[in-house]
Amino acid sequence: MNLSLPAFIEKRSSFNPFVISVTLLFVVALVAMILIAPEKTQVLLDATKAGIFNHFSWFYVLAFSIFICFLVILSVSSLGSIKLGNDEEEPEFGVLSWLAMLFAAGMGVGLMFFGVAEPLSHYLSDITVGAPEQREQQALLHSMFHWGIHAWGVYGMIALALAYFGFRYKLPLALRSCFYPLFKERINGRLGDAIDIMALLATLFGIITTLGFGATQMGAGLEQLGWISENTFTLRIVVIAVVMALAVTSAISGVGKGVKLLSEINLCLAIALLVFVLATGPTLHLLAAFSENIGTYASNILQLSFKTYTYEHEHTEWFTGWTILYWAWWCSWAPFVGLFIARISRGRTLREFVFGVMFIPLGFIFAWFSIFGNSGIFHAATDPALAKTAIETPAMGLFALFEHYAHPAIWSSVSVIIGLIFFVTSADSGALVLANLSSKGLSSGDDAPIWLRLFWAAATGLITLGLLFSGGFSALQSVSVAAGLPFSLVLFIYMVAMAYSLRQEGNRRKASTFDMAPPALNPQHSWRDRLNRILNFPTRKAVLRFMAGTLEPAMQDVCAELNKQGVQTTVIRNEEDQSLTFEVLHGEEVDFLYQVKPISALMPVFAMNQASNLESDKHHERYWRAEVFLREGSQEYDLVGYTREQIIGDILNQYERHMQFLHLER
Q1: Picking from 185-189, 278-282, 562-566, which range would have the lowest pLDDT averaged per residue?
Q2: Strand order in the sheet with 592-602
Q3: Phi-psi region of 312 (alpha: psi -120 to 50; beta: other; left: phi over 0)
Q4: Cα Rg for the chain, rounded, in angstroms?
Q5: Which of 147, 180, 409, 519 registers the highest number of CB atoms within 10 A of its CB?
Q6: CA-CA distances (angstroms) from residue 537 to 88, 142, 622?
Q7: What is residue 656's three-state secondary structure?
């Protein structure tokens, strides 16, 4: 398992002209088809979508369930403690910020759009049967099923693969990197370009569709508030222009500031909206429904996960029009959302990642649909116009619900603000993802240059406006949904690549338990010398002197002997961080890397008064170590005080473990 940056990855990042050119040519050709022959194009795309749904519904159902099982089994296994990055890395973002960002990018606009409309649609369809209470329960079950762990499971599958290969293998954070275990250096050629083009197209179509939905939602809110008389195309132009301007501003500030701040604000506003509807509506009914909805979901999730309505032909149309449409939709969105989730998840363990991505947002989904969905059905019982509005114009459903509460204008305004921020964060993160996908040579922790993000922000805005103007927006939706099938196949390949690489991780851990003789104690040194080394807290200057005078000669001795025996070995000094790297190359097999870095560490309290050991160090609370790193990260032990022979012994011990790992791999 090569956890260092492969030699073929360019160190200097730049945009990839081939990928960008082919992507834009395809998009221009598609838009031209829609503009020149809109009806024929729509018919062709609808037929393609219908063919996929009719022949591959079973595949979508089975694939989604397999992805979820894979992630859950992985998270509860011993491999769940593996970090997305080096073993010593800490998460880049706090838990609340992380959850706010992944949720805002994943589903924000959609929940505002369908939170009231979808439960009402199911409630009034023939998929629900029995008394009104039973139909209400079933309507909420289907809504939460469509937006629950299956959606987040797909996002989690692609995001985990991207984060794992990006931060653990130090590969670029791009979809091509997930194929590295299978295709090695070939991912840097046309094969990798083809993968990135496919990802760019799916991402671009998904973002454009989001912008179209968001513009419609914003227009509906402004119309409901009476600020405009009609939700016109001109208004949508203004909405998209404002959103893209805000997204550009946020993009310039970066993920750690713009998207993070907006996501946190929006999460707080969304929770405030939930609390208001809960507190001023049928509170006891909603609380009871929330509890029962969770139980209903938990008791039915296994059956629904594999249900294809083979024995219920009368519901086949509903099944393909809702469940399979959603499954295809989540697949088409997966590259965009998955890459963004991966970008913000560095430093988390696999277990934290799976639990955070799949199950914590599920709680918010339960709350959102239980409060807004059940409230919509509750009030529709006495106001049939509410149901009619929500079903015919889903974007108006939420605003129509507020008419049954005090101060509807205030809460409609809050909803418009929430929708706007969700809209901006989706556009901002979308521009970031598009820019990263169309770059080459990015390291796993870097983002594409700002100018490239601005280019994609402008491009998506212009394409969206053109499609809305031409009436070809629904055609693009069909393309986006149809793209879900090939990406579900790509996700299977990702799963295989992950399983292969995680098997290597397991073998590496098993090899690390291989019993070795400890470094021999120099007979010329007494136990008092060893104790003195343990209690020694040197300065940086002393550590560098030790590395130059003892460590490097020891590495060179082993390097010379291995080279003499025909094994290609190098010792590399990095002047930037003053590290020394001992590397043994094994051709097609995994190379061995033994690296020592000077690391600053916090001094134990009992040693604070040992000023004699600190010499001229300015910070009396810290000392320096010569810490050992292997490919998976720090081994958390210090070499300072080792003799030349002991260092050679430690290198050979670690190399022997590596050879045991290679033995397990064969």
Answers
A1: 185-189
A2: 569-574, 579-584, 592-602, 622-630, 633-638
A3: beta
A4: 29
A5: 147
A6: 21, 62, 8
A7: helix
**352 residue type, one letter:** E
DSSP 605: G
Pairing status of strand 633-638 against strand 439-440: unpaired
* CA distances to 225, 289, 402, 406, 567 from 411, in Å: 10, 23, 7, 9, 71
Closest residue by Cα to residue 428 from 249, 257, 256 = 249
Q: What pLDDT does residue 472 have?
A: 57
H helices of 513-594, in order, are: 527-534, 540-546, 552-564
Q: How many CA atoms lie within 13 A of 274 on its CB side?
A: 22
In whole angstroms, what is the distance from residue 74 CA to residue 576 CA? 38
Over residues 118-129, the pLDDT tens digits come to 999 999 999 999
Both tokens assigned to 85: 């990055």
CB 145 within 8 A of CB 301: yes
In one letter, which amino acid is 137? Q
Residue with tokens 């996002």: 155
Burial of 465 (0-12, 13-18, 19+ CB in 10 A): buried
> DSSP of 322-335, one letter per residue?
IIIHHHHHHHHHHH
Contact 88, 634 (CB under 8 A): yes
Instruction: Tell me which long-range contacts 3-7 makes (C-beta under 8 A, separation of at least 24).
Output: 3/168, 3/169, 3/170, 3/593, 3/631, 3/632, 4/170, 4/591, 4/593, 4/631, 5/170, 5/171, 5/443, 6/170, 6/171, 6/180, 6/185
The runs of H, that is alpha helices, within 471-483 are 473-482
Q: Please report, for residues 239, 505, 562, the alpha-carbon distance to residue 592 in angstroms, rounded to integers and kept in the order given.
A: 55, 14, 13
> Out of 344-353, 587-596, 608-617, which region has the weakest mean confidence (pLDDT)?
608-617
Dist CA 420 CA 245 (whole Å): 12
Cross-strand partners of 593: 583
Instruction: Retrieve residue 92's tokens.
Output: 């880049």
Look at the pTM and tell me if it is higher than 0.90: no
- How is residue 365 written in tokens? 């989904």
CB 371 within 8 A of CB 277: yes
